[in-house]
Design goal:
single chain; 216 residues; alpha+beta; 7-stranded antiparallel β-sheet; 5 helices; 11 strands; globular
């Protein structure tokens, strides 16, 4: 009986360890440390470890990156990370729950020069790329523009033609699973041209993560 009880206790301990490891592996900081260098060539693994260590110890999480420049982790939670990679670029990561209780990793890289443009990518917790179209249908530039009435149609057409480049800024909400998409096209235009487009601009579009997808 004692032998059987000992075996049971050992088995229970092993199962507990594996369960704890599985839970830990789903935390943003663990995935961030273990991500392939190819997906974040600016920061070394030591950089990533230092950023987390600094923030967890209430210190400024600024490191010298692979190129001898400064990068700073500004936010860290169980499911969210934000890094100011350079004065012009930011990197965000969010863990999002799927129906089967596993997570998908959403990564947003934004470059501003000075107008911002974002790239949204998705990965498994093992950092295998997944098609973004499986999780979101991005808006078009026309989703951000509207003519309020027929009397403005000519002014709208002229302003719309000037918006010849579609620049989209994306931001994950660190407190919840919202994704905010903002039209950044006016920021690259001349001030005069942007003012003509301004009356037809809608507010940023907010997506919510529901049933394993971002939806408006």
């Amino acid at each position: 009986m004692k032998v059987n009880k000992l075996i049971f206790n050992i088995a229970f301990f092993i199962i507990g360890v594996f369960s704890f490891t599985s839970i830990q592996a789903q935390e943003a900081k663990t995935l961030f440390i273990n991500m392939p260098d190819s997906l974040n060539p600016i920061l070394t693994k030591v950089n990533r470890e230092d950023c987390i260590d600094f923030l967890e110890n209430k210190m400024k999480a600024e490191v010298e990156n692979r190129f001898g420049k400064k990068s700073e982790m500004t936010d860290l939670s169980k499911d969210y990370i934000r890094i100011q990679m350079s004065p012009q670029t930011t990197w965000q990561m969010k863990l999002l729950a799927l129906k089967d209780t596993t997570n998908v990793v959403c990564v947003i890289t934004t470059a501003c020069a000075p107008a911002c443009d974002s790239n949204i990518s998705f990965y498994t917790p093992a950092w295998e790329a997944i098609s973004a179209s499986d999780f979101i249908t991005l808006p078009t530039i026309d989703d951000f523009l509207v003519a309020s009435d027929s009397t403005e149609i000519y002014a709208y057409d002229e302003a719309r033609r000037s918006a010849d480049i579609f620049l989209l800024k994306a931001d994950l909400n660190k407190e919840n699973t919202e994704l905010v998409l903002t039209l950044a096209t006016p920021d690259y235009m001349s001030k005069e041209t942007a003012e003509k487009l301004k009356p037809f601009l809608r507010r940023p579009i907010i997506y919510q993560w529901k049933n394993g997808k971002f939806t408006k």
